[in-house]
Amino acid sequence: MNLISNRFKILFIISAILFFNNSNTFAASFDHGYKDYDLLLKNNVKDGLANYKSIKENPESLNSYLDTLAKVDVTTFNKWSEKQRLTYLINLYNAATIKLIVDNYPVKSIKDINKERQGPWKLEVVNLFGKKISLDHLEHEIIRKNYNDPRIHFALVCAAVGCPKLPSQSFIPSKLEEQLAERTRLFLLEKDKNYIDENQKTVYLSSIFNWFASDFIKTHGSVLGFFREYLPAEEAKKINSDYSLKFSEYDWNLNDGSS
User: Does the predicted TM-score (pTM) go above 0.85?
Assistant: First the structure.
């Protein structure tokens, strides 16, 4: 009896060692440069619009990439640096959103998906750490809760014209700071979403600043405080306490660049 028990112990130890070694091997081999995803975006995204039709006709690259992300377990994830973790989550969110659109294409708006129930963001379409979660859960319960950086709102793309433009390259840890700053600047330069009416002494900003005001207040004291940081100094000076803040209408049409 003791002999059998000892054999089971030995087998358990060997299995644990093999699992640990395989986990370490995967952690070390994971491509933090996201080359496959980068190629997918370069081939299918132009001027912030995605060619969903083309991706639907040739879904192998997207499916393979998402499968690779799904293999990451929480132990591996926690070994990564903060920038590596945040980059992974941003790329996962955007790719899962593309997949959601492709699976339901053609649609005129992401809001048309599951609209008779709880909407698209409640569907459990994201594979993360061996579980199925929703885009809402990924954004609000994981990304926003654990990473105190409001610039993520200009990196996460909800597949609508009103949201930030989908970049034609992947986010990567070594350039994440630069990329977040760039995506923020580019979004704030879109005059159909963000502009200053000096005659009316009013700043019009995207509804993103309304929905997630607490994130901008937490880091910059106010929504306008965040906005001023990305303005030329002379323009920033003009926006004083006399200015009011209003939010522009959000365009929920699909960010579709399919020909």
Answer: yes
Residue 139 lies in a domain: yes
Rounded CA separation 207/247 (Å): 5
The angle formed by the CA atoms of residues 101, 106 and 46, to the nearest 5 degrees, is 65
Total structural domains within the chain = 3
* β-sheet bridge partners, residue 247: 205
Place of tokens 């912030």: 48
Domain that holds residue 233: 195-247
At 66-80, the pLDDT tens digits run 999 999 999 999 999
Q: What is residue 150's DSSP assignment?
A: G
Residue 19 to residues 10, 27, 71, 103, 127: CA-CA distances in angstroms? 14, 12, 14, 34, 21
Q: Is position 146 within any domain?
A: yes
Same domain assignment for residues 57 and 159: yes
Specify the DSSP element, H or E, that contains 196: strand 195-197
